[in-house]
Specification:
The complex is a heterodimer of chains A (about 375) and B (about 290). Chain A is α/β, with parallel strands linked by helices and about 375 residues long. Chain A has 12 helices and 12 strands. In chain A, the strands form 2 sheets. An 8-stranded mixed sheet of chain A has the order 6-7-8-3-9-10-12-11, with helices on both faces. Chain A has a 4-stranded antiparallel sheet with strand order 2-1-4-5. The two termini of chain A are about 35 Å apart. With about 290 residues, chain B is α/β, with parallel strands linked by helices. In chain B, helix 4 crosses helix 5 and helix 5 packs parallel to helix 6. Chain B has an 8-stranded mixed sheet with strand order 6-7-8-3-9-10-12-11, sandwiched between helices. In chain B, strands 2-1-4-5 form a 4-stranded antiparallel sheet. Helix content of chain B is about 30%, strand content about 25%. The radius of gyration of chain B is 20 Å and the shape is globular. The chains are: A alpha/beta (about 375), B alpha/beta (about 290). Chains A and B meet through helix 8, helix 9, helix 10, helix 11 and helix 12 of A and helix 5, helix 6, helix 7 and helix 9 of B.
């Protein structure tokens, strides 16, 4: 299935031929008393130069663990159990820790969700931006101070030359997130991984930060891996989208295709459940709840909540099927051989219901505790 | 009955910030002269960013926080003038569902005990009567009565929010304050809980104050809405009027910032120029029932 995927990707009309990042059959597990539990299960995707890939998922889908795996920041009991992460052609999983530290923050950098806790309260923001440059040997202390002002200006912090002496507590949440972005950009990385960069922010500030990221992507010639649960954010920011559910990418494709012609029942359900349509009418909810890691349904993990069940769904996880130009879905709906009996005859698409209760002990997976 | 079920007038809440190591204490006006009313059976939305005072307003209405001044009338009686005993009675009729179903349920109590506790506090029914009521409430919110003896951590976020709702409904209230009731839930589970809230409203003739920052949700379920900015209501009216023709610069910025789940949507962001906001302007009626502080 992945071969099929790769050949199709190769036919994409891209201006830049080389892929910046190729995640290839990545599996990251958490070791528990009852054995290893896969948080990221055989995940493959690519990010081309200059592209924004939106990685969408709910809690426990494995989207953040995917980000940490790319940075090689997975902490025990988590560990990367298989696959390759090719960055500019080099497998990051084979690098020694010293070399990896040179990559981290300099060639690939990470923006976290929480701008309140990611900054050190006892250093000025200027010092913290400069520190990134000094640690990576990009500038002397004096040069770093000057560059810090430039970077803070680039992320549109007003009056950066005096703000550089501010401490984090003197800044609003939106400005702190801008400081984190400045730190992430300091060494001119090729790839920025942004894990829910606007989730903690108010909606007007979120809009400003997303616009800033879009602009910086141009001016700094970045690629972006944007991790989020918000489909609105994805629609506004991403070029391509990968939808994760229970550790697997269940659908991927160009942003327009994902929103216009979603092909996986989970993607369709997510889009259908967004409030819209006639006020006061029932929303089209997805039944049930997000499964807990370590207690995943066999076969396709979405089966118990799916309105399109087939006989083989609970036994064999479906492979990727090509469902459009550069669009793939892991669902037997798209098996060209087809002719597979459905169980039960589906009662109508996305019938609203409170399946959570009927099904009983289904539980959401939080991020695995460490 | 005639007149609104709930009427908030000129509500003010000051918080006094303690004097720190340096400098003296200062007064923060979290809620600044807020007035609105909710008709019986309606859903009234209160929106605004963090720090706008919307949660404080909700808590002042139930006197979980004592307001500095103003009035909160419930069925015509001023709740703020009630004695402790009378207030306890009033709380049977006015309940709150909190945002975070992970921290708002006591982890050491079983689901049954959590839902039953208000009945015990208010000395309602005997043991068997209470048991029957709890089972009925479980059914009402779509929980499996087989899970009565489970602890909160054994439930998903959506199920926990249903437990919080069952507890809030235990005393048969007519008015519920829903403080961001789904924002801590997974996207795929939010719609279930919203559908349940709309069902319950019809079944039990409930009146809701819906405090939220998700404007798409507010547009979907609220008949009327008030927009708060820096402690004040800057715009109020029917949801349709406000979403179609926002008048206040802050409302305009807020509505234009909603991310649209459509890659082809035309976006026109309106940035808020804080200096353009006249902070002392009073609400005035723009069109019938549509008020804005411009």
């Amino acid at each position: 299935m992945n071969d099929e995927r790769r050949t199709t990707n190769d036919q994409r009309p891209t201006t830049n031929d080389h892929r910046l990042l190729t995640v290839d059959h990545l599996t990251t597990v958490f070791d528990t008393a009852s054995g290893p539990v896969p948080a990221v299960d055989d995940v493959s995707f690519e990010i081309h130069a200059g592209e924004t890939l939106g990685l969408v998922g709910e809690s426990g889908s494995g989207k953040s663990v995917t980000a940490l795996s790319i940075m090689r920041l997975v902490q025990p009991p988590g560990r990367i159990a298989g696959g390759r992460i090719l960055f500019k052609g080099q497998d990051l999983l084979t690098l020694n820790e010293r070399r990896m530290r040179e990559v981290r923050g300099a060639e690939i950098s990470l923006i976290f969700q929480e701008p309140m806790t990611a900054l050190n309260p006892v250093f000025t923001i200027g010092d913290q931006v400069a520190e990134t440059l000094i640690v990576h040997g990009r500038a002397s202390r004096r040069e770093a101070r000057a560059q810090a002002v430039d970077l803070l200006t680039a992320v549109r912090i007003p009056d950066a030359s005096s703000r550089v002496r501010d401490y984090p507590h003197q800044l609003s949440g939106g400005l702190r997130q801008r400081v984190l972005i400045a730190m992430a950009l300091a060494c001119r990385p090729a790839l920025v991984v942004a894990d829910e960069p606007t989730t903690a922010l108010d909606v007007t500030i979120q809009a400003q930060i997303l616009e800033l990221l879009r602009d910086l992507k141009q001016s700094f010639n970045l690629s972006l891996l944007l991790i989020t649960h918000d489909l609105g954010v994805v629609a506004e920011t991403a070029d391509r989208v990968a939808v994760m559910y229970a550790g697997r990418i269940v659908e991927s494709g160009p942003v327009r295709a994902i929103f216009r012609t979603p092909q996986h029942p989970y993607t369709r359900g997510l889009l259908a459940s967004i409030p819209g349509g006639a006020p006061g009418q029932p929303l089209r909810a997805i039944e049930g709840s997000v499964p807990l890691l370590g207690n995943l349904p066999s076969g396709c993990a979405f089966t118990p909540r799916c309105p399109e069940r087939f006989d083989r769904c609970p036994t064999a996880p479906p492979p990727d099927y090509a469902v459009g130009a550069d669009q793939f879905a892991k669902c037997y709906l798209h098996d060209p051989v087809g002719a597979d009996p459905r169980v039960p005859p589906s009662p109508g698409e996305f019938a609203p219901g409170y399946g959570e209760a009927r099904r009983g002990a289904g539980r959401e997976g939080g991020r695995p505790t460490r | 009955m005639s007149g609104p079920l709930v009427e908030v007038s000129h509500l003010v809440k000051h918080f006094v910030r303690d004097a720190g190591l340096f400098g003296k204490g200062s007064r923060v006006t979290a809620v600044d002269d807020v007035s609105f009313s909710i008709a019986e059976g309606d859903t009234f939305g209160l929106v605004g960013e963090s720090g706008s005072g919307k949660t404080t307003t909700g808590r002042c209405m139930l006197r979980l926080i004592e307001p500095t001044s103003g009035a909160v009338r419930f069925r015509g009686d001023d709740v703020l003038a009630f004695s402790r005993a009378r207030m306890r009675q009033a709380r049977r009729d006015m309940q709150i569902v909190f945002q975070d179903p992970y921290s708002s349920l006591n982890p050491r109590m079983r689901a049954r005990q959590i839902v039953e506790e208000p009945l015990i506090i208010h000395r309602l029914g005997d043991r068997d009567g209470r048991r029957a009521r709890v089972a009925e409430l479980f059914h009402l919110v779509g929980l499996d009565p087989a899970h009565l003896e489970r602890y909160p951590h054994e439930f998903s976020g959506g199920q926990r929010q249903r437990i919080g709702l069952a507890r809030a409904l235990a005393l048969n209230p007519s008015f519920l304050i829903l403080d961001e009731p789904v924002s801590a839930l997974d996207v795929s589970v939010q719609a279930q809980v919203i559908n349940l809230l709309m069902d319950l409203q019809r079944q039990l003739r409930l009146t809701y104050l819906f405090i939220a920052h998700d404007l798409r949700l507010v547009e979907h379920i609220c008949a009327r809405v008030a927009v708060m900015y820096l402690g004040r209501i800057v715009e109020m009216g029917t949801t349709a009027a406000i979403f179609e023709a926002p008048q206040h610069p802050y409302t305009r910025a807020l509505l234009s910032a909603i991310p649209v789940p459509d890659p082809d949507a035309r976006r026109q962001r309106i940035e808020l120029d804080p200096t353009a906001v006249n902070r002392t302007a009073a609400l005035r009626e723009i069109t019938a029932g549509h008020w804005a502080a411009v």
